Recover the amino acids of this structure.
């Protein structure tokens, strides 16, 4: 009797986990030009990984840098969800001047991002001040 | 006795570990940060922060403010209407935009020109008038642009799941009366009840 009950509970748990996991798994199909005309100015980046779980799920492919018409630095991060399930994270861009001083804490917006399975997204930011020379982007996985 | 120790310990410790991350006691958190409360039917502080950040980023990237004869551009704030069911001061959005534009060096906001002739800073307007009278010449500081907008709410519901979309619509109009830049940021929130975090 006890063995049967255990088997029933285990079966139900297995079924529930399959349903819950399977329900969230949808991946993105894409189509694009085989010979894109745009030429990206990619930045050589340095990465400090403290959450390998997030880094393995949401991978930063690269950082593209350009200037706005007014001369401000504009960055665009290409991130790809390497998993088959939807991922949620927040990111935060910090800007620094030529002396390495962080500029303008008023622009310290922490922005949420939802990325579907196997989807590539582009996260953009514009420097808050013409004196901005460097940037750093922080990523944090959502706890739920 | 030993057999029951591990399950008992797990049952006792699990709630303690969970509550360790979210104790109910009051504490300070970063405004608009990762620990902010997210509601469904209201515009939260992090929504204003995100809308302002995105709007200013797009405005600066457009270069619209750079097309003035004598930079930085002079900006006057027109009406930004709250069309949601919630009562809040729209300065929660416009002030953040103003601060960011001011910091960028691309635009300065006039505080002596306002809608219906009402200045944001009446003393500054009075002093400007007195100086113009004494010097017998008018300060030729007329705004290059006006900023106007609306905040609109759209609600939907499926069973006990509620959804709210807040649209932050902004227009930058030049002296000719043409909207030279327009921006719209939409923030959609869905859930059954408010929660902590994004």
């Amino acid at each position: 009797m006890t063995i049967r009950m255990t088997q029933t509970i285990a079966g139900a748990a297995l079924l529930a986990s399959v349903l819950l996991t399977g329900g969230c798994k949808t991946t993105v199909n894409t189509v694009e030009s085989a010979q894109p005309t745009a030429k990206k100015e990619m930045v050589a980046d340095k990465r400090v990984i403290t959450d390998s779980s997030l880094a393995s799920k949401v991978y930063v492919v690269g950082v593209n840098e350009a200037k706005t018409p007014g001369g401000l630095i504009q960055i665009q991060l290409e991130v790809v969800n390497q998993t088959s399930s939807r991922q949620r994270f927040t990111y935060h861009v910090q800007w620094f001047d030529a002396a390495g001083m962080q500029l303008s804490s008023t622009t310290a917006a922490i922005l949420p991002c939802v990325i579907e399975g196997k989807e590539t997204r582009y996260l953009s930011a514009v420097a808050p001040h013409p004196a901005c020379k460097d940037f750093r982007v922080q990523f944090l996985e959502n706890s739920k | 006795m030993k057999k029951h120790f591990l399950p008992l310990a797990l049952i006792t410790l699990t709630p303690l570990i969970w509550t360790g991350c979210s104790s109910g006691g009051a504490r300070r958190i970063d405004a608009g940060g990762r620990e902010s409360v997210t509601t469904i039917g209201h515009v939260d502080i992090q929504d204003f922060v995100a809308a302002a950040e995105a709007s200013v980023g797009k405005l600066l990237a457009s270069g619209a403010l750079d097309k003035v004869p004598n930079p930085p551009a002079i900006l006057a704030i027109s009406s930004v209407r709250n069309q949601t069911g919630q009562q809040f001061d729209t300065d929660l959005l416009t002030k953040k935009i103003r601060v960011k534009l001011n910091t960028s060096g691309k635009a300065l906001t006039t505080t002596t020109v306002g809608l219906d002739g009402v200045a944001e800073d009446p003393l500054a307007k009075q002093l400007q008038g007195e100086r113009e009278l004494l010097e017998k010449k008018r300060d030729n500081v007329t705004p290059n642009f006006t900023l106007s907008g609306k905040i609109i709410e759209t609600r939907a519901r499926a069973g006990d799941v509620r959804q709210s979309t807040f649209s932050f619509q902004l227009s930058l109009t030049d002296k000719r009366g043409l909207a030279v830049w327009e921006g719209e940021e939409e923030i959609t929130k869905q859930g059954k009840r408010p929660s902590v975090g994004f």
